[in-house]
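Weekly structure sync, notes
Attendees: PL, DS, HV (note-taker this week)

Item 1: Aldehyde dehydrogenase
DS walked through the input record. Source organism listed as Kozakia baliensis. Sequence as pasted into the shared doc:
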Amino acid sequence: MSIAPSQKNSGKFALAKRIAAAVVGLGVVGGAGFLAYAWYPSIAPISRPAASFFSPEAVKRGELVAAAGYCAECHTRTDGHKGPEMAGDFQMETPFGNIYSSNITPDPETGIGNWSEAAFKRAMNLGIARDGTQLYPAFPFDHFTKVSDQDVSDLYAYLMSRPAVHLQPRDNTVPFPVNIRIIGQAAWKLLFFSPGRYKNDPNHDAQWNRGAYLAEGDAHCGACHTPRNAMGAEKLSHAYDGNVIDGWIAPPLNDHNPTPVVWTEDELFQYLRFGVAPLHGSAAGPMSPIPHSFLSKLPESDVRAIAHYYADVDHAEQRQGQNTAAIATAMERSKKNLVGPQTDDADARLYQAACAACHYNSAPGPVLGRPELALNNALWLDEPNNLFMVMLHGIGAKEGQDQIAMPSFYAGLTDADMARIAAYLRRTRTNLPPWTDLEKKAAQMRATLKTPPINASH
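Item 1 (cont.): predicted structure, written out as tokens:
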């Protein structure tokens, strides 16, 4: 008995409907499962506890946790005018729009004054606000999740003991659909976030583990020194390979760092503790406040532990044998190019007039306070950003080495002048290929400055 074509079509249509229904059903179940994963309930507000509720010891410990995490750096407004400390409204420019940091003073209305400790811990551990909102990863909860429960509790005690500031941060400018946090941020976490406290590595000693705990967790060094993917997540397969932050290049912290002299544990310690390393120069730009305003408050042993950890990350012990020859080569290059005003090299004359007086070294090694540019990261990076940024910003007397300043040349040098100096230094102090489009890049770096530096030379 044959089946009519209409009956065949009817059977195919019924099968297609069943398949479509199954797909829709799976989609509904999957969507419901995702929403169950993404949704968090609000945690009930509390009355702000009195500062006396917290022990002085806990508050003091919490102050150190705040210093190690640079809380004031990202929770204090700096554009336009200096805002109250910890009251938020710091502008973070991201590929997805501007994000403004939250007020973390204990103001009940605009800050965290009505947050319980449980709500605060959830934010640190999981990136979820008290009201259940998914937080953007501009708040580095992917690092703070590694901070111990005790340190988070102490940090809460410190923040809740500070003066309350009534200040509502500006609204974020993140566009649709990224601003639909329950979808976008939850999906981001599903792909890139692994919650959990730091666990000691038994293959390393206590100092290494202390350094790793601080660096990977509270200090969140990878947030600036690790490149990010198109979704804004750290490329963990390229951890510490360097990144661009506000125009500055945060250089690699591993053995991909191109400077000819290895960052040894002692060089790292000097840089992180005092803001200047004898062989590598001064901290500048976004890095400058880290040693001076934050890490200087920590016990010396903690800063040493961070240096110990990163010296292992960059395999300093295995590589530092190259340092003696690298220093000798750098000094030879500098001496060879110490030319007088009668030289035919116009770029050299410009460098002599603007820079040489403070960067001259004739001894077998560089003198502290006279950074040897042939050793400096800025000349060995793939792009001239940092060299131009230092020229434009300068380095204040409270930055870098104590009471030694470099003036800003924002008004004293044109983009063409900066390009000539950069080209001259690259070709005479390194063995690397020349940078390209230098004048254009100088103009781009100048454009990143909203206002001229106050110490700009004329």
